[in-house]
């Protein structure tokens, strides 16, 4: 009896069954297939995303209109207590440097000390983040700084308003007192997050060696360079026949354009568009600034320019307006009038 109980109480241990060899071999194959399937799906998603970005960039490149439409105002003026709208003032009234002024009667004025310490500032442009890019220009005399000082770009942070040097540009020849100008024109292109900058550094009375630089703002790399053209104002506009950089000639009242490829590079040579002097009410002005407004309007600020600091100290400014006719793929003159009238 006791032996039976002992026998019944003893637990039987079942032998463990090992997984079949074929199943052990199959598991890593299945896991590997799942991993590579996930990797391929992720790669396809990234390729699709990159393709969509490229297509969006191409649409932006080919859309008729101004190329800097994405540019916006910086944030720091509002932080300092200014109410929008406000504008950037480089008229050098009441001292050198940059000012930001509320666009209303008796509006507040903002000017940081460092903005005036760099001297007189001339051209400027904004990017899609609200960063301001500008450059010093000679004004009245060269007593404080040599001509080489004026061939650089300054950057003003969108959040803090801090001004710092962005980059210096190479001159074709050593600048001299006979031509004290360096950077004189600047414009932004949303499609490539880049700027075009014109420099007169090294040009002389009979020696046109000006340069136009295409600069990547993220890397500070000079992507493309146009040689042997003295340009003042710059502006990028996409026409029905393609994107173009418009250039105001520093030596004549003529406007030129040069075709741009999808990377923003220069195609061919500058082509003549029209002359400001030939327009009704026009003068022998040089296109100091070129801006494109809404409704495809080209606004040109004209001044008399002869590489002279005396001429630069108090120039007469005239405004020229042109409308783009998409059907004709051409610009038509609208009007000319003195600035402020």
Can you walk through the features of this model?
With 341 residues, the chain is an alpha+beta fold. It has one domain (66-338): TolB, C-terminal domain (Neuraminidase, 6 Propeller), CATH 2.120.10. 19% of the residues lie in helices and 37% in strands. The protein has five helices and 20 strands. The strands form five sheets. It has a five-stranded antiparallel β-sheet with strand order 1-13-14-15-16, with no helix packed on it. The protein is elongated, with a radius of gyration of 31 Å. The relative contact order is 0.10.
Which features would summarize this protein structure in a list?
single chain, 341 residues, alpha+beta, Neuraminidase, five-stranded antiparallel beta sheet, four-stranded antiparallel beta sheet, 5 helices, 20 strands, 19% helix, disordered N terminus
